[in-house]
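Hi everyone, sorry if this is the wrong subforum. Our group has a chain we'd like a structural model of before ordering constructs, and none of us has done structure prediction before. Sequence below.
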Amino acid sequence: MTTSWWIGGVEIPTRIVLAPMAGVSVQAFRRQGRRFGAGLVCSEMVSACGLSYGNERTLGYLRIARDEHPLAVQIFGSQPELLAEAAQMVVDAGADIVDINFGCPVRKVTKTGAGASALEDHDLACRLAGAVVEAVDVPVTVKMRRGVRNGSRTALDLGPKLEAIGVAALTLHPRSAQQMYTGFADHSLTAELVSRVAVPVMASGDIVDHSVATRVLADTGAAAVMIGRGAQGRPWARWLIYLSPLMHLSLLFFGAIFIAFELYRKYAGLGNKVRFVVVVLVNLGVIAVTRAQERGYSLLSVG
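Answer:
Right subforum, don't worry. Here is the predicted structure as tokens:
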């Protein structure tokens, strides 16, 4: 997880990438992501039309802090000339990488021909990506879903075409746009995409802990894992992915012991050593339940 890799000429110091998420990947969130070990952070998606029109709110997405780098700014649109113009603007603002969104399943985006709908029109997708590659001198990446419909494999055909026109890396979230965020991410498609292209591939979807991240990297051959919803409300999630389950539990165990000791030292006059033991056991119980929930178990499902 801690070995570096490259997207074009940009070195990424770890194998963990913080995903672009609309309404979530604001500057404060990205800075916390870098603080907790993300090798690359991405902005929320930025409208090419909004930038072209000089929309004040859209321009606000281009505020970049010095401690965010390396940073990818994600743009979306359905007009090659506007997307190229937007790419130049985000590079001027300080982006190290320009990412193109071919994955958003939300209707207000797809109805314009942007987002995941570009997966249905490879000619348009290639013209959009090609315009951006020609417009900027930084690496260009593309994030996409497997396709629009359930069972689609169109991303596997589009990936090599994007590589051929100069796209430096690809991210695959192997759910369909129709699925939205239901069901499971089928990373066998990620492995197949890796086998079809020479550029780095980032695996996105259902990456929630160290064991999943390690398994996905091993099974797919992907260069990195991209964490999205698994990091919401858990800024430390990127850091914990570094740790093996044993190290993770050991850290939590000694943390619980420390907290219990401090409580006992503070309130020693109120009881005896039995209270200390109870506090330790309660803390360990909380740890066990938390870990079980993170792994998808529930007390209601036991038996």
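For your construct planning: The chain has two domains: 5-240, 245-301. The mean pLDDT is 83.
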